[in-house]
Amino acid sequence: MIFPTEINLLDISAVILLIATFGLMVSRGFSNWVNAYRYQTIVLAGIVALIASITNIWELYIVSALTFGIKAVIIPKILFYVTKKLDSPIKLEIYPYISMKLSVIIAALLVTMSYFIFLYLDIKSNEIIQVFLPVSFALFFIGLFVIVSRRKALNQMMGLLTIENGLFLFAVSLTHGFSLIIEIGLMADIVLGVMISSILLFRMSRTFDSIDIKNLESLRDD
Amino acid sequence: MNEFYITELFFGISQVLLLVVLSPLIVGIMRKTKARSQKRVGSPIIQPYFDILKLVKKEEVVSDQSSWIFRCNPWVNFATTVSAAFFIPVSIVYSPFGVMGDILLVIGLFGLGKFFTILSGLDVSSSFGGLGSSREIMFSVLVEPALLITIFVIAIFYGGTNISMIVTSANEISFLASPGVIFALIAFFIILMVETGKLPFDNPSTHLELTMIHEATVLEYSGKSLALIEWSQSIKQIILLTLFVNIFIPWGISDNFSLTEISFGMLFIITKIISLGILITLIETRIAKWRLFRVPDLIAISIASSMMGVIFFFI
Questions:
Q1: Which of A200, B46, B83, B167 has its Cβ near the most Cβ atoms within 10 Å?
Q2: How close, in Å, is residue B224 to chain A by CA atoms?
């Protein structure tokens, strides 16, 4: 029996991250989105720890722990709190702009596209970049796609957070970690962003009785 | 040399017999697990054997409006599933009959059986039969591309569509050959649930004919024919489970003809099939049946997943 080598482990963790991202595409309810995001972030924290163990940079372990603590524990808590307080009755993404089955296939095509983009880039210096850079592109594109294709504001927030995860993975795999203080600043930024968008959600839900983005399109009440 | 071929053939045939004989037991174990997880006592795990025996003894009622299709469908079903069983390696990495056909032939045989089932559902012109037939054909049309892409993913990673070859190289590599295989695994698992009529797609144990899919097409059968149909359905299920286990988790399968290794392989495969069956049943108890027009979503996941498997081959 052959056990997975380190590179094989990198590949497998990238695949698991992609699968977790697909979980965001296929789920329909509020709690499912938040849970999908949580799984995705836990896998991401694991990947950061893996990179840390390969490159022997101890700061990355702290970054991994921070990722886990802030993105996988605190942000989902905030979001669950928000959804509990919202008084809009519909909590499902029933009619997205693009249907579920089409969007899953489009997401697969986006992953393909990101791998092809990666083929034309000239940064293939080590294994970590080679494995995780295309995945970070894929996360970025899928997040963007979630933002443009879904109606509910909370779902769009999940898309934004996925983009952020992709950028984070991009930065970590390319540079093996910034200095710790920047990392902490980034995390604080995300928490603030989530809080501000939660406040927006509250206001939207109070004004329109729903969190459908369509309500924001008209400029005044006619 | 001649003796070697005889032992080979003997093992091949005994593998097929094992699948055919054990298949109702797996059904019984799955039913028992389901009953236990719903806090019921449930029928004993050998109940499917009793069912088949009882059905064989009973008199058969055939509608006088039906044609030869209705009467030959159980035999076609049974013959196709049993002949598909000849190509499946069970406890040894290759099946002696593997030279005659590959995994595409197995799918073709299943397709033939399904085709006759659908025709016989239409043949007696009962309203439920037609309904079940139209649903069954819808599902099989949707599953076909997913299944074929999945098989191509497996074929490009393990070097060929011959099942013996796939299982041999899967056994040699032993852990995942490539991350792409994980995607193929997800896709194949969804297809497995569709083909065996499991819960998000089909609920065979319901009392309401409107929600049935496979059962609605065979609603008119009784006696021996029903026994044959149920038996071939369970053989199909065990074949798919064996394929899944042997392609994706082939640990413990024997690669030569020594008696101890084969008996260990037998033990391993039976344990793995039973635990996979229990796992599927536990998943089944946690979800409700999906609306018919939401089911394509899941099959789209399967297609997308196998597409990603193809991508991972080329990078």
A1: B167
A2: 42
pTM of the model as a whole: 0.86
CA distance A154 to chain B (A): 22
Domain count, chain A: 1
Q: Is residue A35 part of a domain?
A: yes
A219 falls within a domain? no
In a domain, B107, yes or no: yes
Look at residue B153 and tell me if it is in a domain.
no
Work out how many domains chain B is built from and give that number. 1
> Which positions in chain B touch A14 (Cβ < 8 Å)?
179
Q: Give the C-alpha separation, A198 to A204, whole Å.
A: 10
Structural domain including B81 reads 2-141+207-286
Going by C-alpha positions, the residue among A183, A176, A163, A145 that lies closest to residue A48 is A176
Show which residues on chain A lie within 8 Å of chain B, measured between beta carbons. Answer: 1-4, 8, 11-12, 14-16, 18-19, 22, 26, 100-102, 104-105, 107-109, 111-112, 115, 134
Residuewise pLDDT in 10s, chain B (315 residues): 567 778 788 888 888 898 899 899 999 999 899 899 888 888 888 999 999 999 999 988 888 888 888 889 999 999 999 999 888 888 877 777 777 778 889 899 999 999 999 998 888 878 888 888 888 888 888 888 889 999 988 888 888 888 888 888 888 776 666 777 888 888 999 999 888 888 777 776 666 666 677 777 888 888 888 999 989 999 999 999 999 988 888 877 777 777 788 888 888 889 999 999 999 999 888 887 777 777 888 888 888 888 888 887 776
Q: At what angle do helices A100-119 and B295-314 cross, to 10 degrees?
A: 10
Q: How far is CA A45 from the centre of its chain?
A: 12
Residue A220 is assigned to a structural domain of this protein: no
Write out the two tokens for B75. Answer: 């035999």
Query: ipTM of the assembly?
Result: 0.77
Whole domain around residue A29: which residue ranges? 4-213
Q: Which residues of B touch A107 (CB under 8 A)?
A: 304
> What angle, 0 to 180 degrees and rounded to 10, lies between the N-to-C axes of helices B223-248 and B47-57?
150
